[in-house]
# Entry
Amino acid sequence: MRKLHSGRRSTANVRRAALVLAAGLAITGGGLGQASAQSRATDESALKAAFVYNFAKYTDWPDDVWNKSPKLRLCTAGERGGFTQTVAALEGKPAVRGKEVEVRQLSRPEDAASCHILVIAGRTKMAEWTRGVRSLPVLTVGDGEGFATNAGLIGLYAEGEKLKFEVNQEAAHRAGLRLSSQLLKLARLVRDEQGEGR
Amino acid sequence: MLGIDIEHQSVGRKDMHWKRRFPVSVAGVLAPVGATPDPPHRPLCHRPVYLIALLLAMAQQGAQASQDLTDLPLEQLMNESKLIDASIVGASRFRQRVSTTPSAVTVISREDIQQYGWRTVAEAVRSVPGFYVHSDRSYNYIGTRGFARPQDYNSRVLLLIDGQRTNDAVYDTAYVGSEQLIDIDLVERIEVVRGPGSSVYGGNALFGVINIITRTAQQIDGVEIGAAYSSFSTVYGRATYGKRLDNGAEIVASVSGSDSQGPDLCFPEFDMPETSFGRTSGTAFDRSSRFYARLSQQGLTLTAAGSQRQNGNPGAAYGVVFDDPDNKQTDQQAYANLSYTRSLSPDTEISARLFWGEYRFGLNAVYAGANAGEPEVRNHDRGLASWWGSEAKLVTAWSERNQLVSGLEYQSNYRQKQWTYDVAPYQSFLDDRHQSERSGVFLQNDFQWTEAFKVSLGARYDKVGSASGELSPRLGVVYRWSQQTVWKLLYGSAFRPGNAFEKFYTFPGQQIANKQLQPEKLKTWEAGVEHYLGKQTRLAATTYYYTMENLIEQVTEADSGLLQYQNAGNVKAQGLEFEAEHQWDNSARMRLSLDLLKTQNAQGEQLSNSPHAIGKFLGSLPLPWMGLRLGVEGQWLSSRKTDADTTVPGYGVVNLTLLRPMARDGWQLSASVFNLLDRKFADPAAPDLGVPMRDRFVQDGRTFRVKAVYRF
# Structure
């Protein structure tokens, strides 16, 4: 009696589960078609590049530095890969405070003096590059672990499912850059070679 | 047998009672979705089809609205972006990406908690692939990998709050239900690491580590007031303050409370004239309150938290008088914690922590007199655990290819008390006092052998009380086969010593002690593959096999006929888990999982409370109106055996939450319907000599909640 009863229930349950699964798969399938065309839009590198583009809006360079070039000079260095590619794709985006974005890939730290923003991708060459532009009015942005505590200015990091950033204000002072309070409000604040960490 | 028959005959009537108890229409709540509820007597299994069509339509519609990320302001980018490969700290006690962790990991975000209307940690964790929760209307218990002993007090998962262990020192319980220490609205995210964690955490981390990460002052940034009203006359309120000051100091403070009258219930095992045919009202009440405070500056953090929950005993557990609201229990927790973190260099971080915790349990019970006509007996059953301890940890990338984490931990359980007495005339039955210590040292090194190949080797040595030491090694291999595909292999061993409750607790006519209890030991082998498709889709499959030696199990002791915790032989199990996760450009997302599992006890039979299959669905969709989002949660569990050798049928549950996320005007609003289809389902019950004919606890049918949060 009991067996029969529970047997019937479980068939119904299997059917229901199959329906739930089918629903999910249908949605995945339906979405996949859409996604393959646009999948880059929210990929992590594109997100990082969008952060970099935003940082430009919230940073004040000294007048002479800002005025020396008609374009916003965005340079990339470090490990070549997704991040440097998506930053390169920022060229042609709407102008930031009247300046069109120009992107250059650097191979020597000495060339960085003419950049407004220097994006240093990855961890392996991070120290070498941040040392190279130390005290220059260059906004350094990196995604290597410990970037901002290692003399970098803005470090991108993942926390849970979110992309966040930490700011080294001492490094900003050294570089003579002013970061807006709106930016600082969203940032985790760190210092050279020490911080809250996690 | 007789008891079981009674139970069976009355199922039909019980269902009728349940129906009658939910006369409230949910049509109003559902209206924006566009689905009018079906007439009540339509076959239930047809309903999801409408849902599917609806979801599909909305997913398709929404997916077309794609945005260039650079158009979005920074704050929105930060809040709305989701990395498909999340970062976690709970697996190895340092920050790493899920794809580089040898373990299977799920991250539950704050957005998920809001989107799916989860009220407790248990409800959130229930969404994790392979996890299931059972309830006896006192606590919620977490099962995973087919393992959820009905008489276990949640001692086989480790619950951390910001990395700090919270399982108490008498019952070893991870408190995840309405008695939980942290209000769910203070949670930034929950990391759920499946599989063994003893190699870095020591005892209790057998089947999983749940790390709750609280919101920072910066994330709260102001004052938040929350209020909710839900079924069974349940009210909830919360006030939270969080601010980062200009000098970098951060303050968080929060208080919250809830009061529920609880449902009217019907227990077929009490279906007799003298116990009002099993019906009880006003006994399933649940009142809780909690506070949380944190102060931090420059790596130094001071945290204090406390909670209290009082609830009734509607099912007359332990054989108390049925339908008497004087039967109630109280759970109190307190917690304080001073921690310091400092980077010594960009590659090296040290941290230290001093912690204190306390847990108090109080059961007030009313028992019938021994003979007819004698007065009722009031009995108090108490538990008290107090502990303090300290730990130190070092995380260092000591070479380009090596990352090392190492630590020391010491904990003194300076009070482990359990006592039981009749109030009048006073008579003591148990006055058990113990003290114990545990200490551990661990070391783990992650070696990046080649760019694609990482080996993680670690072990922890623990000394618990006077027992001999326990070594828990773990070996993990992560192989990045391609940019998209990661293979993982893991071997881990974990242990759990018998706790004070299992070893020392006695109660006349119910339970006897067992001072000889040996630790149980788990060995797990896992292999998994994760495939990232276009960085918006994650597919994962995991297979595992585990054996548990010396399972600590409550059994009926042969001579006395009373319950006793014993080492009851070995258990083995294997399982297969599939998971698919996808997010669309328009911020719609979904996750689907299926677990197939097989467990075997010492007799070669499937464990009780162990399903063969578990299916889950989570979907979150932006709706075209007013920024609303719809969250759909589906849970399906196959049938489970009970300890009385009966079977509780499989069930499927659908929960819906309509959310208006926090907007510029400061308001966040949500409306939820839980168990939308009003499924009647039950969880297996632990054997209770006071209620021998009970084999299951029927769970709530359809319930609702409306909630508002205002921020300024």
